[in-house]
């Protein structure tokens, strides 16, 4: 499956009509959104003086599984995710560690939530925590091909039981091949029953060490800060067994994973990156998913500027052109130009995917109605991955001025597109814009049934472009 006349036209700065006519003259009858085969695309390219280049998604994802020199490999801090059932104390534990920094006598002083932070457990012994508790984020990252977690801390409230989400967390960790360290929490409570939990854990396939199993286990109280240091020591022991190493060479182009991003009014896009390889430095040009940039500043979890960040180090990075997505790989490039080229290639591929997914029908017909003066308002529902995205989209949409027609955002929210959203859209004749989110199964079915326009985007510019076109009544195919 390759590009359609419409997309080729965009790439070559021509109209779709010109492409279709060219096809016609070559004896091929095609429609505007029909996928053309490779040969046709090559021929058309030649006809218009372009050379077709076919980039597969794999090729465009340049992190060539790089070769690490053995002498560059050094022990790096483990990256830990905290999982467990709701209310068992994940957030309390993360908060305690963030605040106390565990190191005796030193306050952590990490007040910001930036998606990840590093603590020094003892002099020179660090642990990096991903600050999104639960297995959803963990699995979402994994689904995008980013495995960042080395060790899972499974929190189980000792006054409760092994619960459905405990089991899920176990299954998700096992599926990822990530070792578990059990934290039996709330032992300050009189009803705490440690033996019962251990029994239930063994039934769930997690055998703790003192029962002859593999899993280290620590009784703690997240609320009271009891035995947290002991828990950290067990995590470090687990890390030592695994000999987690990273490439600490300063000669190689650094790479890392996007943990979280937001749009800051003053600073622009600010993204938390977990460096995995090499050192990310101020001034480095990079690509990250479909976007690119140049590192303008690096900040640690305390908001302090730092010149560089090495393996397992979470840093706030300034200098992105657009919001990257959690789980995207950030790769340092030779030059700004290389970064831009690769980002553009990826965007083309991405658009191709979006194009295939989205049903144009509804917005097209709205565009027509607007053109004919039948419609004065375009109602939209925005569902997006983060508040930052929503804000950016809303700001952008509000700036689209048009004499006759206006955009109205009737509902917005972070998270999946749900049935309720679809129902609201159906009731209000609105389109749904999904920005880096997908509908759940029921919502998808309902949208199909209602013949509703649900559009998926990952680049803000593309949303604004389409809405603008619809408002100008131009979105309908030119033919
Ligand atoms: P999460 O849903 O897993 O993130 O759980 P939270 O961290 O929000 O904790 C849920 C509730 O349990 C809160 O009211 C906490 O104050 C309480 N809690 C957490 N850890 C402990 C603990 O060690 N002892 C006691 N007594 N309460 C705790």
Automatic annotation (TrEMBL):
Organism of provenance: Chlorobaculum limnaeum
What protein family does this chain belong to?
Belongs to the TRAFAC class translation factor GTPase superfamily. Classic translation factor GTPase family. IF-2 subfamily.
**UniProt keyword list:** Cytoplasm, GTP-binding, Initiation factor, Nucleotide-binding, Protein biosynthesis
Where the protein is mainly located, per its record? Answer: cytoplasm
Q: Where in the cell is it found?
A: Cytoplasm
Can the keyword Protein biosynthesis be found in this entry's annotation? yes
Q: Where does GTP bind?
A: 84-91, 131-135, 185-188
**Protein name, per record:** Translation initiation factor IF-2
Function, please? One of the essential components for the initiation of protein synthesis. Protects formylmethionyl-tRNA from spontaneous hydrolysis and promotes its binding to the 30S ribosomal subunits. Also involved in the hydrolysis of GTP during the formation of the 70S ribosomal complex.
What is the covered span of the full protein?
Answer: 367 to 845 of 944
């Amino acid at each position: 499956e390759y590009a359609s006349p419409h997309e080729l036209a965009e790439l070559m700065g021509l109209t779709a009509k010109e492409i279709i006519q060219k096809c016609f003259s070559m004896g091929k009858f095609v429609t505007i959104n029909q996928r053309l085969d490779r040969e046709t695309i090559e021929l058309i390219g030649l006809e218009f003086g372009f050379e077709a280049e076919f980039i597969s998604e794999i090729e465009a994802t340049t992190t060539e599984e790089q070769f690490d020199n053995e002498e560059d490999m050094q022990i790096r801090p483990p990256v830990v995710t905290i999982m467990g059932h709701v209310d068992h104390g994940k957030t309390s534990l993360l908060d305690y560690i963030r605040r106390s920094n565990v190191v005796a006598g030193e306050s952590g002083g990490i007040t910001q939530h930036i998606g990840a932070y590093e603590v020094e457990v003892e002099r020179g012994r660090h642990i990096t925590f991903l600050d999104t508790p639960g297995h959803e984020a963990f699995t979402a990252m994994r689904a995008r091909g980013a495995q960042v977690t080395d060790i899972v801390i499974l929190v189980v409230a000792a006054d409760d039981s092994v619960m459905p989400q405990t089991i899920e967390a176990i299954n998700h960790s096992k599926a990822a091949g990530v070792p578990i360290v059990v934290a039996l929490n709330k032992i300050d409570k009189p009803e705490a029953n440690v033996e019962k939990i251990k029994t239930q854990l063994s039934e769930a396939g997690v055998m703790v060490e003192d029962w002859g199993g593999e899993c280290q286990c620590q009784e703690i109280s997240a609320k009271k800060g009891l035995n947290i240091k002991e828990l950290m020591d067990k995590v470090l022991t687990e890390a030592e067994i695994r000999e987690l190493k990273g490439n600490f060479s300063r000669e190689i182009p650094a790479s890392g994973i996007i943990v979280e991003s937001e749009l800051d009014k003053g600073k622009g896009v600010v993204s938390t990156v977990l460096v995995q390889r090499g050192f990310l430095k101020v001034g480095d040009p990079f690509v990250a998913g479909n976007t690119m940039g140049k590192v303008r500043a690096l900040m640690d979890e305390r908001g302090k500027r730092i010149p560089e960040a090495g393996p397992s180090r979470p840093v706030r990075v300034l200098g992105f052109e657009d919001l990257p997505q959690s789980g995207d790989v950030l790769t340092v490039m030779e030059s700004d130009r290389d970064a831009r080229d690769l980002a553009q290639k990826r965007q083309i591929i991405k658009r191709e995917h979006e194009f295939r997914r989205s049903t144009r029908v509804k917005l097209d017909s709205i565009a027509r109605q607007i053109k004919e003066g039948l419609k004065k308002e375009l109602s939209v529902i925005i569902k997006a991955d983060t508040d930052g995205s929503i804000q950016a989209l809303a700001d952008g949409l509000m700036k689209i001025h048009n004499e006759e027609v206006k955009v109205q955002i009737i509902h917005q929210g972070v998270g999946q597109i749900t049935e309720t959203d679809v129902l609201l859209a159906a009731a209000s004749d609105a389109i749904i814009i999904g920005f880096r989110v997908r509908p759940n199964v029921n919502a998808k079915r309902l949208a199909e049934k209602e013949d509703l326009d649900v559009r998926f985007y990952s680049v803000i510019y593309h949303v604004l472009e389409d809405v603008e076109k619809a408002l100008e009544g131009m979105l309908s195919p030119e033919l």
